[in-house]
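Today's session is about reading a structure prediction critically. Students often jump straight to the picture, but the first step is always the sequence itself: look for stretches that repeat, for charged clusters, for runs of hydrophobic residues. Only then move on to the predicted structure, which in these notes is written as discrete structure tokens rather than atom positions. Here is the chain we will use throughout the hour.
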Amino acid sequence: MATDPTATDPSDPATDPRATEPLPLAGLTVVAVEQAVSAPFATRQLADLGARVIKVERPDGGDFARAYDTAAQGLASHFVWANRGKESLALDLKDPRGLEVLHGLLEGADVFVQNLAHGAAARLGIDAASLCARYPRLVAVDVSGYGPEGPYAHKRAYDMLVQCEAGLVSVTGTPERPVKAGIPAADIAAAMYAFSGVLAALLRRSVTGRGGRVEVSMLDALAEWMGHPLHHTMHGGEQPVRTGLAHAVIAPYDAYATADGDRVLLSVQNDREWRRLATGVLGRPDLAQDPAYATNTARTRGREKTDAVVAEALGRLGADEAVARLEAAGIACARLNSVAQLAGHPQLAARDRWREVDSPSGPLRALLPPIGLPGGAEPRMGAVPALGEHTDALLRALGMTGAQITALRRDGVVA
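Below is the predicted structure for this chain, in token form.
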């Protein structure tokens, strides 16, 4: 039952011999029992870099992130973002025949990734320890919320909950109100450490010939990202205060409204820059030497007055003119863009960062992945799969007959 489920497609740019340099993960096969964001986003990175990723989903609805919303032309935006370039196999792993199919795939796989609820993978015998014992060359990844042991191991670990446990929410927001990050920061952090952990384990395998386990928890990942406030608090004795868009020890450093209703953020890093700002942008050369404004210590102590004078000057300008004047004066600045403005950002357009990926609802815009590999094949941005789209092809590759596949479908083992 292990003929060749990992054969590469000669039309695939990841394995195209005409490319100057192939994608670095071309020829590798990843099997993932994954859901939501952390594991799917990790395996999407692998797919973008050329790996074949087989996504194993429940027959009754699949990855529950498929149903989060319908914003992407009827598809869920989370799912579209984290699952392009994968093959979908709808398989009931609670049925022994489903597990047999999974092990047929694992016999030819290089990497396995799972982020099931605590204990679920172990009960099925597909946790990293069990699989590495059975398949010595396999790199097997367990992604969890809080790690495999300890008092929090059994807790549900949704992104917002982990943001709270990791203290991120306590340092994000305004002095009056903490807020969570507007993106799934804990999921993304875990995903990127899982991705880099896979690469490290594959590099080690190239030397030793053995795969091995990779463990990543959302709390560990986000706690690492909290390094600055954590060290500041542990060693300085005080938690950094929440300052919204402002900076705790620098002024002016905030977003200011412009005459056309936009907001422009600026940052003055030293007193030389303040003098340039006062003279070239605010039209107040007198403030360059005024003791109440001339030093950062004074400006921070009198932050309300500092912000008021900057706000008054920028409030008379449109955003374009404000940015032009700030840049001419050598002051770091940025527009406070909306998500829609990001989608139309001129820098992304100028660098040709947009592509189209296919999906069950038609072509969708998507950004190229951030990792650039100049001189080689472009990252593979494959289609977003429909649930079970590749089930039959994968089962046939494992040597199953049409009658066997029909029987599995009839019994609800596959879809």
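Discussion point for the tutorial: The chain has a mean pLDDT of 95.
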